[in-house]
């Protein structure tokens, strides 16, 4: 199958390579001419045979909006755009409505797999009309891991990115639990082999997982994580998950706490903790540390 791929970064570039290895004809465009097959989106569309499928793999927000708008002016009725970035599901619904007026199909696809996807395959969560998803199925089948799992047509437009959003929220909570457990083990005077303790959990325990494997891999590189600063960024999906929970009146205490923990990691000297320290000193005479 022929497909256009817009955005050939860490994810998009590996996805294009996996598709090529799977026998598909991929025409790729990236702002970096060193990795791009064409000079621009217009040439990309011209290189594709109708009806066309173009997969967009660029950052969420303005870059995706700009790309979808430009493709909407270049593509024709019967073509399909797949947004495989981490877009907000509300944006998907807007894009689908605007493109639908031109007869252009739209599929949103949450993609998980990171830098390991080229080798292991990507978990795919799609939203959109069945006819549009079915058209792209040969691409999905090549990108997904082998076996029954790794792909879902989750529902209407927006469902794919909604499912991916919740997936990332769960990921926040799991990572925070591993992080807190590691910190407690490191603080213990009893446990002498923290890395070995984590590694022992990889077989036979209920918390064995790919994240645990990656945790042990990180400890193999830096056993006490002494080379890292305790700072964690967030991609935005954790925020959207918490906001969706508010919108649907669903309690998410673990995921919300994990998101806030990332915010706290960006404070070298927490203003809130100054208040806590001051109050403890006022009511209990507890010692405070001065700069």
TrEMBL record:
Residues 160-287 form the 6-phosphogluconate dehydrogenase C-terminal domain. The keyword Glycoprotein does not apply. It is an enzyme of class 1 (oxidoreductase). InterPro entries: 3-OH-isobutyrate_DH-rel_CS, 6-PGluconate_DH-like_C_sf, 6DGDH_YqeC, 6PGD_dom2, 6PGDH_C, 6PGDH_NADP-bd, HIBADH-related, NAD(P)-bd_dom_sf. SMART domains: 6PGD. It comes from the Bacteria. One of its GO terms (molecular function) is oxidoreductase activity. Its EC number is 1.1.1.343. Keywords: Gluconate utilization, Oxidoreductase. Belongs to the HIBADH-related family. This is Phosphogluconate dehydrogenase (NAD(+)-dependent, decarboxylating). It comes from Nonomuraea typhae. The gene is gnd.
């Amino acid at each position: 199958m022929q497909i256009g791929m817009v955005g050939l970064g860490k994810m998009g570039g590996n996805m294009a390579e996996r598709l090529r290895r799977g026998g598909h004809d991929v025409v790729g465009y990236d702002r970096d001419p060193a990795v791009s097959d064409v000079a621009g989106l217009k040439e990309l569309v011209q290189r594709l045979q109708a009806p066309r499928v173009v997969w967009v793999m660029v950052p969420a927000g303005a870059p995706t909006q700009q790309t979808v708008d430009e493709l909407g002016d270049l593509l024709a009725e019967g073509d399909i755009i797949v947004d495989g970035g981490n877009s907000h599901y509300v944006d998907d619904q807007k894009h689908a409505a605007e493109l639908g007026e031109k007869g252009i199909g739209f599929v949103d696809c949450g993609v998980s797999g990171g830098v390991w996807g080229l080798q292991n395959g990507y978990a795919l969560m799609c939203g959109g009309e069945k006819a549009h998803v079915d058209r792209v199925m040969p691409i999905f089948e090549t990108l997904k891991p082998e076996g029954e799992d790794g792909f879902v047509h989750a529902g209407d437009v927006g469902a794919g990115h909604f499912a991916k959003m919740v997936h990332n929220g769960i990921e926040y909570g799991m990572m925070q639990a591993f992080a807190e457990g590691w910190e407690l083990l490191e603080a213990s005077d009893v446990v002498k082999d923290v890395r070995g303790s984590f590694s022992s959990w990889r077989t036979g325990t209920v918390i064995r997982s790919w994240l645990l494997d990656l945790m042990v891999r990180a400890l193999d590189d830096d056993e006490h994580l002494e080379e890292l600063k305790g700072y964690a960024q967030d991609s935005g999906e954790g925020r959207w998950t918490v906001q969706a929970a508010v919108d649907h009146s669903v309690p998410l205490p673990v995921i919300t706490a994990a998101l806030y923990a990332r915010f706290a990691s960006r404070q070298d000297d927490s203003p809130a903790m100054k208040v806590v320290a001051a109050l403890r000193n006022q009511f209990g005479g507890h010692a405070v540390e001065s700069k």
